[in-house]
Amino acid sequence: MNQWPAEISIDAFRRTWVLEGEPLWRRVFETHREKMQIKNPQIALGNLEKIFTCTFRLANSKGFQAMSLRDLSRETDISMGGLYAYIGSKDDLAAAIEEVLRQAIDDVMSDQAVISLDPVNRLKAIIYGDIYMNEIMHPWYYFCYLEAKGLSREQREAAMRMELKFDERLRDTFQAGVDAGIFTMDKIALLATNTTSMLQQWYLKRWKFQLMGTQTDEYAAFVFETTLCNLKCSLD
Amino acid sequence: MNQWPAEISIDAFRRTWVLEGEPLWRRVFETHREKMQIKNPQIALGNLEKIFTCTFRLANSKGFQAMSLRDLSRETDISMGGLYAYIGSKDDLAAAIEEVLRQAIDDVMSDQAVISLDPVNRLKAIIYGDIYMNEIMHPWYYFCYLEAKGLSREQREAAMRMELKFDERLRDTFQAGVDAGIFTMDKIALLATNTTSMLQQWYLKRWKFQLMGTQTDEYAAFVFETTLCNLKCSLD
DNA sequence: GTCTATATCTGGATAGAC
DNA sequence: GTCTATCCAGATATAGAC
Question: Does one domain contain both A46 and A109?
């Protein structure tokens, strides 16, 4: 079982949870082996990478529904028939993306090491970890957020449960701090949803952060500090 | 020129800026008169209302791209041919929705009365006003946010400019407070984007607020108070 | 495993009757 | 002003050669 290293940095995060490059595509391949006609990983990995990254590029610019498989075929240089050796259907492709991301989030979230930290450091680990993950898997998050309506009912609900679970994790951390007498916030539930949304902004409002020249660690620090500030302020 | 009344409440807001019911549809009719073949307002208003509200219902559940005009025809009880007497094309319908909302926001945002208030009350007026507006025109906001990618380049840019303008309005208010020695925040730009995003949550995460049982004024108060708290906290 | 060619269908849009 | 009937582009998906 992986766990957070002592040092909090995106490089340490990258080394701990390998969420990109060949290992990622290998995981995609393993997860969807049964839905594909291709059995040889050597051949599959490269094409999977092309299919997924091109889907992100097309879907994130014109929308997944508006993207045709002809577009995807042209962009990937894989024929229409060829595509269908890798995906069962167009909806299947969207479902696969959601599934892979959810699995990755689930892995990282189930990291037990975080729980043993004191409230402030636990909060820090959660926030920085989530920002790093958003940063690394940006297109996946962006896709899942904006194409959620096209997913199946089960997948939509799973995504919502995931978000509620994340909120809960924050609430528990806040509550631990309140119990320890460090924090004094009373609107814990609302504050948790707000922190979650601040984190989501990192992949949703990329255009704005680019415009402002905000860096990853700078933003993570901002989310951490404002949340902490709200936990310590006594409102009215 | 309309302006905010002394009292801050959703009822007062409703009376000041009439953003629903017949006056709204009349405005939609006036704005798009030239694109429609129907000239008689008596007949048009009712059908426009049906077309727009059904579009919201369909698009907000399956997505605008996935919604077919046949779906819309069935839902509105207007034939395919009939629909085309009201809209120039499917894209046209989406464009019209964005245009009407943007016009409405522009009207409310250009309210000069807010500027004369002291920083704290100005902030309060901006936040409560925006929440009330999100509440009243919820389907319009939700549609425009999630279907932004389907809009024309010009409309997307106009929407982004609108959001930047809103951020700027918040920043100016923050800065006024800093200059007056009331606030001590240094990350003004990031805080402004965060307040904007908290406000957007009110229409984006409706499912969650319903689950938590959060009321409109309660949420507005939360946004106001946490923003104020961040403006007064000194983050080391 | 990958391609070309094609079957089949859906959906936007319009013509013309009433 | 509204409807029915229809056109046709473009999309998903598959069959079968290589």
Answer: no
Let me know how long chain A is.
Answer: 236
Residues B61 and B171 grouped into a single domain: no
Tokens representing residue A34 in the block: 């049964």
B193–A187: do the CB atoms touch at under 8 Å?
no
Chain B residues within an 8 Å CB radius of A225? 235-236
Burial label for B224, CB within 10 Å (0-12, 13-18, 19+), is buried
Asked if residue A234 has pLDDT above 80, the reply is no
Q: What is the structure's pLDDT at B233? A: 80
Q: Which domain holds residue A119?
A: 96-232
Pairwise CA distance, residues B204 & B208, whole Å? 9
In a domain? residue A170: yes
Please name which of B43, B73, B156 lies closest in space to residue A63, comparing C-alpha atoms: B156
pLDDT score for A34: 86
Confidence band of B34 (pLDDT split at 50, 70, 90): confident
- Please check whether residues A130 and A213 belong to one and the same domain: yes
CATH number of the domain encompassing residue B72: 1.10.10.60
Question: To 5 degrees, how large is the angle CA B62–CA B67–CA B69?
Answer: 160
Those nucleotides of strand D lying less than 7 Å from any protein Cβ are 1-6, 10-16
Give B144-188 pLDDT, tens digit per residue.
999 999 999 999 999 999 999 999 999 999 999 999 999 998 999
Tell me which chain B residues have a C-beta less than 8 angstroms from the C-beta of A233.
226, 229-230, 232-233
Q: How far is B41 from chain A (nearest CA, A)?
A: 34
Write out the two tokens for A196.
């979650």
- Tell whether B131 and B228 lie within a shared domain: yes
Tokens (6 digits) for B126 = 């901006």
Token match 């920085």: residue? A128
Looking at B96, B124, B152, which one is the last position of a domain? Answer: B96
User: Looking at the 3D structure of chain B, how many domains does it have?
Assistant: 2
Strand C lies under 7 A from the Cβ of residue A47: yes
Q: Is B63 in Cβ contact with A65 (below 8 Å)? A: yes
